[in-house]
Amino acid sequence: MSSAEEKFETKEGTPSSEDERYIHKVSVPPKQKLFQEIKSGVKETFFPDDPLRSFKDQTNRRKFILGIRAVFPILEWGRDYNISKFRGDVIAGLTIASLCIPQDIGYAKLANLPPEYGLYSSFVPPLIYALMGSSRDIAIGPVAVVSLLLGAMLQTEIDSATNAEEYRRLVFTATFFAGITQTTLGVLRLGFLIDFLSHAAIVGFMGGAAITIALQQLKGFLGIKNFTKKTDIISVMQSVFGTMQHGWNWQTIVIAATFLCFLLLAKFIGKRNKKLFWVPAIAPLISVVLSTLLVYLTRADKQGVAIVKHIKKGINPPSVKDLYFSDQHLLKGLKIGAVAGMVALTEAVAIGRTFAAMKDYQIDGNKEMVAMGVMNVVGSMTSCYVATGSFSRSAVNYMAGCQTAVSNIVMSLVVVLTLAFITPLFKYTPNAILSAIIINAVINLVDLHAAKLIWKIDKFDFVACMGAFLGVIFFSVEMGLLIAVSISFAKILLQVTRPRTALLGKIPRTTVYRNIHQYPEATKVPGVLIVRVDSAIYFSNSNYIKERILRWLVDEEELTKESYQNKIQFLIVEMSPVTDIDTSGIHALEELNGSLKKREIQLILANPGPVVIHKLHASEFADLIGQDHIFLTVADAVSSCSPKIMNDV
Amino acid sequence: MSSAEEKFETKEGTPSSEDERYIHKVSVPPKQKLFQEIKSGVKETFFPDDPLRSFKDQTNRRKFILGIRAVFPILEWGRDYNISKFRGDVIAGLTIASLCIPQDIGYAKLANLPPEYGLYSSFVPPLIYALMGSSRDIAIGPVAVVSLLLGAMLQTEIDSATNAEEYRRLVFTATFFAGITQTTLGVLRLGFLIDFLSHAAIVGFMGGAAITIALQQLKGFLGIKNFTKKTDIISVMQSVFGTMQHGWNWQTIVIAATFLCFLLLAKFIGKRNKKLFWVPAIAPLISVVLSTLLVYLTRADKQGVAIVKHIKKGINPPSVKDLYFSDQHLLKGLKIGAVAGMVALTEAVAIGRTFAAMKDYQIDGNKEMVAMGVMNVVGSMTSCYVATGSFSRSAVNYMAGCQTAVSNIVMSLVVVLTLAFITPLFKYTPNAILSAIIINAVINLVDLHAAKLIWKIDKFDFVACMGAFLGVIFFSVEMGLLIAVSISFAKILLQVTRPRTALLGKIPRTTVYRNIHQYPEATKVPGVLIVRVDSAIYFSNSNYIKERILRWLVDEEELTKESYQNKIQFLIVEMSPVTDIDTSGIHALEELNGSLKKREIQLILANPGPVVIHKLHASEFADLIGQDHIFLTVADAVSSCSPKIMNDV
After folding, report:
1. Is residue B615 less than 8 Å (CB to CB) from chain A?
2. Cα-flanking dihedrals φ and ψ of residue B271, to 5°?
3. How far apart are CA B207 and CA B336, in angstroms?
4. Does residue A83 sit at the B interface (CB-CB below 8 Å)?
5. Dihedral over Cα of B555, B556, B557, B561: its sign
6. Which residues in chain A touch residue B453, judged by CB atoms under 8 angstroms apart?
């Protein structure tokens, strides 16, 4: 029975023998010139989005204008800007400003900086981003995770308490290099590097960081004075319970707990009714105002309730001269900045993509990176620390109906007014309220739903997720990050060293051959073993693939021996999924062919792709096994073996 | 016209509607238990060769015996050992001994060690390997590349000239850790790690190392006294030509050149007539004997011909107490040992595999690593430095008709007799002759033919090859190695971030859909875009794949607009090559589906594999696009769209 023949009995009638020969042949596509080949490779790697498409066939003047617009998207969308959009942006900008002011003050503390630096970082970076960024919904400013990461890494280098001035200078240096890293990645179009942090690892890392941040807030929440500088859960718990007898302050706890309940209630209301999104958005500012008034009126600070005391009035002082370019600080700043910059990017790009997908517009990842980078470089010169897109504020921005990056400008202006006039009013704001606000903000980062889904879909991903999570909680933020990256890489390496292979069988009444593990009804062809290799054959897996195919063969031969079936005489390798092969791969095929020859088994290839068939010819392997042993489909290959097996029976 | 219908008009007649439904469905294989899933994953990763297969269904006593035999393969093959095999082994052993003695003396110099250490390393390690190794053809001992690598890396830590004692101790420490590294890799079954050095990178690295070694020999060859300690070609050339006026010794050059010609002639004879393989094999020893006599008789050493002078008599002294376990030396030894151990392994495993393939027996890579590791650990305690399999001597061993590892034992005994009695006779051996022997040995490592083939097959591989080659020659051995590893990794990363995708078309008169780039005769289906994704969809490429598919769509829509064709209404993603998908991949599909919905295009999947279909169900993505939009083949998928498109026209 020949399966291939069946196929040709179509409505068009029986094909002539010429057609049949034509159809069976595996085409070798026209050979590309070397330069062409390299060019298309480079293009696909670095410019998959074809960013120069719109520049094609334009005059030089027009190209220049398009180039300027590409760098400053505001010139693009600014042309259609109108009053109705402006209204949306103003409302959104005011909402996120009310949310960001208390958050900024708290986040600055996570980075071991005085509170005003959080506000500084919500002034300059959003303005720069509004000019250069392409996301319409992202809200720029300091974020919890990056603040914590930066604080934890810098603290191990310089003690912020005893050496505040030097510490601050190192912060700016790190911020500068974070910006340089981001810009470089964008300009060199290496944006894909951040894709190496898997979704699962990010979920775990964010969850762990959120819990670590929340635990850090117990200091402010419980009014503890002597708190550990470490971030792992064990040290923190020792700090917390070691001070229980005489270190907690009940007035502080009452204020913190009350307002935390208020914030959670506001969040609950916002979740129940999407129209009331502004309730949780302004709740933090209301808490700050109420609690400040309360402390001022009751003079609770005299009862041991810690207060902010002093926020420097006035806008950002310049900090260009504070950047450290001496030997040792340069290296530290570079290292810490690069890590913080990458993490910040990961967060920003994820946010940008999420909202772009919701409103269905395109974001150019590499362009975003350049915008982020420039904004942080400028930030480092104007007393800002690393800013990026904030999950919580971006969501509020989106729900409040922002239309463009103008909402960031509005927010920035509110922040600058705050810095210029209102900061003295924060004197009596209790630290406890900032802690409550941060706890309320970060618990959203613990995404149990996502973790559950990861568990359901991919167990290995779950291991990566939990590894990052536990690494952050039990060791340190950096350790968690390292674990996340390592597990992500391990997965990639596993993928390329241990690709899958499958035995194929014929699905009844079709000429389709499928994995017999998936389709138990598929039947093997007697005397023929059909193996599909599910990956490009490269040096990292060529040896494994060769040995795996031989093992399939040995297993099958044992089976046929037991059941007195035909001896295997043909091994068909289905190569559809084999997109590429390198010199090691060709070697492996040659060795496989040698082993098969010794066992008197003929190697047959089915459907090699364009790149592979090229290389099979270039290496003369095609001649080695015989051109007539390469077929378009498995069905054709099987039909070519069938008559021979008949004869042997 | 419905393609799927065609397929059912087979010899078996028109199928009933029940059959049709049955055939179209994509099977979801029975869900594996979590434990089962993890178990099979671990097994495939670490035990792809199923090493415990023979232990199945055996009594405990039998299992124990099998276990002992697995560790000491000599107990396995020793049982069938007979006198005819012994004859082959003795001849081969004597031949490789005559080859190894002069080589060892020269290689020890590459490692900056006194000559006797080369001989020591040809005594103990081959004995251990004979007990534990599973290759029958490999010849164990010091090799040129590892000697050079070890010498170069250790020299940067401790100067061997001024601090010989400390240097020697660090050599043993590094050897110890090389052995530990090898054993660990074998025991943890991480043998696949050495597969990460690609064939191309090895060819380049070996070629570069060979040229570097040959250049180093110019010192002995030209009789130069003050020679650079650096290994890069520029320093060496400066050394060579800087001393041309008064540093060269013509008597030395005459001796060296004469015997090099003799060696090359012998090699030429051996190549022309395979039966005369022993001519090049014993030529080095003959050269040593003749040149030693010549120098002794003419007292050429008084004319400035450098001679060996002194080789310590007697067998290996113990060196357990010389191992350094103090803080700083431990780390240096560990680092250098790990690198040298990995490189030694790469060479040994490549040799083992090559000869195993030629004689068609199996080699267990992980077991080999344990054998190599134990042999080097024992070696480090008996004054040996890192030993491994030698390309040139293994080839001679093979051609001399070795049958088992007994040839290594024979060689080892000859070496020990040499150490015990003959070393004083080497006193007048000119260094020049050792240089000639090494030059003659290493030029074989420059594999121009392989480099040419690599160029023909894969340009990227060629870049890796040349990178390693030039790195070794112009910078240092370590730098070359680093370049080789980096380029190999870059290739893997590119593979997983930028997988290929292809547009499919229908090949005339079949129901087969193939890449229209490879098969220009394939025709697109109006209103339907068929894209094949050629890789597992993971976090590292999910975003790229999503955007690439959308770009295919945009390009296609522009084309249809120009030619007034049907608007695209269906996007079929052929998933046959997609062997796995993770949570990021599912997200990307969801986003793709969202974008398509906005454009009123229906997403259809064809032939998802067992793992993928599972995850599509687990994540409920299958329900999102509709179960009836997942088909077994592209043909089925197309036939389901066709009637709808007809209606719209």
Report:
1. yes
2. -75, -40
3. 21
4. no
5. positive
6. 583, 619
- Specify the length of chain B in residues: 649
Output the DSSP codes for A471-536: HHHHT-HHHHHHHHHHHHHHHHHHHHHS--EEEEEEPTTSS-EEETTT-TT-BPPTTEEEEEE-S-
Contacts A619 to B, Cβ<8 Å: 453, 456-457
- A543 close contact with B: CB closer than 8 A: yes
Among partner residues A353, A450, A579, which is closest to B535 by beta-carbon distance?
A579
**Which domains, ranges and CATH numbers included, belong to chain B?**
3-30+498-648 (3.30.750.24), 76-440 (no CATH)
Q: Between chains, do A460 and B543 touch, taking CB under 8 Å as contact?
A: no
**A42 at interface of B, judged by CB pairs closer than 8 A:** no
Chain B partners within 8 Å of A553 (Cβ): none
Burial A564-597 (b: 16+ CB within 10 A, else e): eeeebbbbbbbbbbbbbbbbbbbbbbbbbbebbe
User: Which of B5, B10, B362 to substitute to test the interface with A, most A CBs within 10 Å?
Assistant: B10
Distance from CA of A379 to the nearest CA of B (A): 30
Q: Kindly state the tokens that stand for B411.
A: 């060689």
A27, A357, A536: residue with CB nearest B518: A27
Q: How many CB atoms lie within 10 A of CB B71?
A: 14
Read off the tokens for A239: 């700090």
Nearest 5°: the CA angle A7, A11, A16 is: 65
Interchain CB contact of B310 with A (< 8 Å): no
User: What predicted TM-score, i.e. pTM, was given to this entire model?
Assistant: 0.78
Whether chain B has a CB inside 8 Å of the CB on A184: the answer is no
- Which residue in B has a C-alpha nearest to residue A608's C-alpha? B518
Helix, strand and coil content of chain A, in percent to the nearest 5, comes to: 65, 5, 30
Q: What pLDDT digit, counting tens, does each position of B353-365 carry?
A: 888 877 777 777 8
pLDDT digits (tens, 9 = 90+) for B205-258: 889 989 998 998 898 898 888 888 788 899 889 888 888 777 788 889 999 999
The position carrying tokens 């305690």 is B381
Signed CA dihedral, B619, B623, B624, B627: sign only: positive
Give per-residue pLDDT as tens, B249-272.
888 999 999 999 999 999 899 888
| Amino acid letter, B511 | T
The H-or-E segment that residue A140 falls in is strand A140-141
Per residue in B32-65, pLDDT (tens digit) is 676 777 777 777 777 776 666 677 777 888 888 8
Contact B539 A197 (CB under 8 A): yes
Q: What is the ipTM of this complex?
A: 0.79
DSSP state of B5: H
Q: Is A515 an 8 Å CB contact of chain B?
A: yes
Closest by CA position to A354, among listed A178, A597, A554, A139? A139
CB A572 within 8 A of CB A638: yes
Burial class of residue B352, CB neighbours in 10 A (0-12, 13-18, 19+): buried
